[in-house]
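REQUEST ID: PR-0412
SUBMITTED BY: lab tech R.K.
PRIORITY: routine
TASK: structure prediction, single protein chain
INPUT:
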Amino acid sequence: MERTDLLVIGAGPYAYAAAAHARARGVATTVVGRPMSFWREHMPADMYLRSGPDWHLDADEEHTFAAYFEDRGLRPQDHDPVPIGVFLDHTEWFVRAKGLEVDQRLVTSLAKPDGTFEATLDDGTTLQAERVVAAPGNAPFAHLPTWAAQVPAERRAHTCDLVDFEQLAGARVAVIGGRQSAYEWAALLCDHGAERVDVVHRHPVPDFAKVSWSFVDPYVEQTFAQRGWWRSLSEEQRASIGAEFWQVGRLTLEPWLVPRLDPEVVTSHPGRAVASVAADDEVELTLSDATSLSVDFVVLATGYQADLTAVPYLAAVVDRISMTAGFPDLSPGFETSLPGLHVVGFASTRDFGPFYGFTKGCPSAARIVVAEMLAG
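STATUS: complete
OUTPUT:
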């Protein structure tokens, strides 16, 4: 039976950040997962990031995204916005620079029969660990509205499951949602020859303007400086920060989308929701203002909703994890109520703030988790 001090389940940005920092602090660490699988398998190859080279993974501030650009002889201004392929190449560079080894077997189940975790891998072997960092990412938490079940499965997809747009050339498509992914998928549909794209969302049409994400920096720094900072805030303070985040990150979208949103193809339907669905040879969506849309396909840009019970490998221990509204209740060190099990990334946002659903939070999450482990 294999053994390690720390098992990191996942091989995405938060997993890499935590594993690299733990290893740098002398913690024997094993990383298990498919490298950047969500980014590679659930994001279109021709999409772009909203962030720039100032967002990185390295808690030790050495192998940053900016350092990658310098090492590769690239100019950031030539990659603005950043193509997803550049970011993925950067993560491979980071793994090599940090000397990480990623075991590409998958954890199928996690148990803690006594004081030690036992992870069963997909080849039947078992790995023991004193502590575990679970970084399940976003994939298990894709949110679908209840009415989506009325649309035949072959005629709908959440954005995380639609990465090939060739099949929708000449199609009439409804995109449900109004944030970055909704309008970027609308742009991608235009790029690939969709006949018509209707974007339906409850809020007004967003602005398309260059924004600065620097407002996030002091919040992330404060989270690291003051244990439990986000939860110590009043509801009003959290709501105020959430509104600021919503305005910059949700109601203002990237201006580079505009030239790709063909006005002869794309129509926005702000202030509306889907009221009813009928499906036969085509899908008929009736909106809340009685508008009727006949479409061939429905794209659900409806975001993600935490539900730790949806993470398959946690099935054997999830009843030992205290949760609120699907989120694990976390200590100031990202530790769940099951001692030794830490959860990072999107599933930590209720206790640490919305910034921890983005790569911006990777370095500080890694520092906090590893500091907690070493203190214990």
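NOTES: DSSP finds ten helices and 19 strands in the chain.
REVIEWED BY: pending
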